[in-house]
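User: structure tokens for this one?
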Amino acid sequence: MLADKLDLLSPPVLVREQAFEQIRDAIISGKLAPGTRLIERELCEALGISRALVREVIRRLEAGTADRCAGSPQPPRRKAHGQAGRGNL
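Assistant:
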């Protein structure tokens, strides 16, 4: 029966998901060292995807990092150059 044969097929994986997993896995495995700049153009060429998808993947990776770091204390914010503090008014 055709329905039984189609059940053997795995659900399709979106290109966006594949790209996300490839970059995430490269970061986790150490292939991309901490602090490595992720350059959109190079990621587009390496993964064969559009810049829009690369941006989406990077935003998703950043959001995941922010979620994991949410419990850690934030460093104090520095005043912008020339900004008056309360004591200087």
